[in-house]
Amino acid sequence: MNPLDLSQYPAEPFKIKAVEPVAVISKEMREKAMAEAGYNTFNLRSEDCYIDLLTDSGTNAMSDQQWAGIMIGDEAYAGSRNWLYLESTIKELMGFAHVVPTHQGRGAENILSTIAIKPGQYVAGNMYFTTTRYHQERNGGIFVDIIRDEAHDAGLNVPFKGNIDLKKLENLIKEKGAENIAYICLAVTVNLAGGQPVSMENMRAVREITKKHGVKVFYDATRCVENAYFIKEQEEGYQNKSIKEIVHEMFSYSDGATMSGKKDCITNIGGFLALNDDELFGKAKEIVVVFEGMPSYGGMTGRDMQAMAVGLRESVQDEYIEYRVKQVRYLGNLLLAEKIPIIEPIGGHAVFLDARRFCPHLKQEQFPAQSLAASLYMDSGVRSMERGIVSAGRDPKTGENHMPKLETVRLTIPRRVYTYKHMDVVADSVVRLYKHKEDIRPLKFVYEPKQLRFFTARFAYAD
Ligand SMILES: *Cc1c(COP(=O)(O)O)cnc(C)c1O
Prior knowledge:
Elements: H1 27-36, E1 51-52, H2 64-71, H3 81-94, E2 98-102, H4 105-116, E3 122-125, H5 130-138, E4 142-145, H6 166-176, E5 181-187, H7 200-213, E6 217-220, H8 224-234, H9 243-251, E7 256-260, E8 271-275, H10 278-291, H11 302-315, H12 318-337, E9 350-354, H13 355-358, H14 368-380, E10 382-383, E11 385-387, H15 389-392, E12 408-412, H16 420-435, E13 443-447, E14 458-461
Bound molecules: pyridoxal-5'-phosphate.
């Protein structure tokens, strides 16, 4: 198969009812805007971006059914019918006993970390996510990465690169003792590893090991539907199962999950925590009223909850998710055809440029991925995001920079927003930059916030 043959990719399983015009500003204006933004793409104005691949978080296009749901929002303070519909949708699709709504994913992470971590306990995960680890550490947890080694090697093309290394898991339990492990946090898919999926076999094995020792497993379910697609496509025995069946089986191996509604639920805001344990659910409800809102809205409006429930049901439709994952793959294949270094295999929500190989003339302390993202914007108005040393932050104890093996620029594709032709424009710009990659310059911090610094940091050229 020729990976560039467009007929190999599914056409959009929708038609377009509303459009949002975009315009590209001149190169001089983009250079000025980037300098004013301190070479941090987070500080740019949306209107100055042509194709916005900063994130797939909350940037999704809702369907007509979701917009119709907005109109039937029940904004009662308590017991909204939209909450009851959302709750029953989550229980039906994921199989959990209890649901706690939150304003977005990190709201759920805050609650879970507060109720399930005792200071000094270990929390092990398949790599980490920025806000997830932040909440774990804020509650006194010690994060341990137990993802398979291959996940840290950007160029290595192996399936299910997001799997937990079972030996690392067993050794951790042996060395630290089950009672000193708060829980295992299993992300499906692994965002920072490049949107890499976890196999059902691995989920089952993690369940068996942890069950033996009485250790709980909570999933970061943010991209669980994309993960399910990879299982259907690549794991023995799942080709004839529906995405809905696969998603349901995945969560049967967990004790609960945090979910950002802004990703696979195809909405613009929202989230939830799902749990099986009655006692933890009781504790979660006590905390949700303090930080989010009543346990029947958790910071969301009735209309948002309705849109999320409808979006969740749409997300598990087989045609939708195949199109979604393959559109991302199309962009990745365009870049591979031009020998651009990216993380392989191509993940479920984004293509990650490997800035180490893209900018071999820059040291990691010179923020190659940050600078590459800035250059990409200045070249074509395409906005992307750094996922490397800046995102990794500093060790809270030593104050030293974390030095992640992966130094990447993430081109994240919003759901149902851009066409295949937009992907061509993005690829052309990346290829153009790669031809003059020596022109990508070193950066230095001029403002470094203490927490989650990548969001608001500012830089200047260091040469
Ligand atoms: C976005 C994201 C979160 C946090 O969710 P928010 O809704 O942004 O708070 C957690 N984990 C993963 C893997 C994510 O991608």
